[in-house]
Structure formats: C-alpha cells, structure tokens
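Dear colleague,

Thank you for sharing your sequence with our group. We've completed the structure prediction you requested, and as agreed, I am returning the results in plain text so they can be pasted directly into your records. Please verify that the sequence below matches your submission; if there's any discrepancy, let me know and we will rerun it promptly.
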Amino acid sequence: MKIFTYKGLPVAVFTRNEHCPPHVHAGSADWEARFEFSFWHDGVALLDVVPAKNKPSVTMLEGLRQTLKKPQHLRRARTYWWQSSQAVCLINQRWDTKSQEVVPPKEKRPRTLLIQTAIFDARRYKTILQLRGVSSPTEIQL
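Please find the predicted structure tokens below.
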C-alpha cells in the first residue's frame, strides 16, 4: 500500500509475506531501500539497500527517511502495517518502566518487564502493551 511518493519514487508497505521489524520499501528499477519505523517512538532508520552497488546518494536516502518521519506519513505506514500484519513486533521484548523504552530481550537492565502482548489502536493512535506482572495495560500515545 502506497504511503507517499518522493521525487517520483513510491514508498510503500508491502502486504504479503512481511516480517518484523515494521518497515517500508522505496526504490527504483536499480535499487530498493527499506526503512524501519516503530510503534513506540517516532524514529525512522535505514535498514538496507539492495543491491548495495547501486545504492543511491546519501542525500536521496536521507530525504526519503525524513519524509517518512513526517507525522502524516508515519501514521499511514503504521496503520497499513497493522492492517496487513496485525503485529507491532514488540512481543517478548522488554519495557523499561523508568526510561519508558523498549530494550532488547537479552539486555540486562533493572526495572524491565516482558511485553506479553502489543496492539496498535489506529483510531486513538496508541500502542497498547500488556506487561507481565502488571494488571493494567501501558498505553503509548504516538
């Protein structure tokens, strides 16, 4: 599903056989880039470009990344990803209750709780986490 077009290049969430982390695809006939986004913060990162030998300029990739970070585009990407996969890719990771951030499962940090379930509420634009040992859910307003 197309999110936006940047300098003539389509940026889209694919709806078949996708996998974590949440990401969009962008590119041309010569290359394809994937950009990761999150359901708990507004950062966007370049995952990869294939083939690497045809990699576009840093300016082009940064322009794509910054455009995806715009609230209206990130909102569409999250909504389309959730509609197609029903996953926010946070289950079995850990939530740091002090810093209010996701930490990798193997990172040993005090005050972290296992994320048992995670859903995206597109209407309220929130991610809802159910943490092990906590009766009420943790809501992340995006």
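Summary note from our side: Residues 94-141 form one domain.

Kind regards,
the structure core
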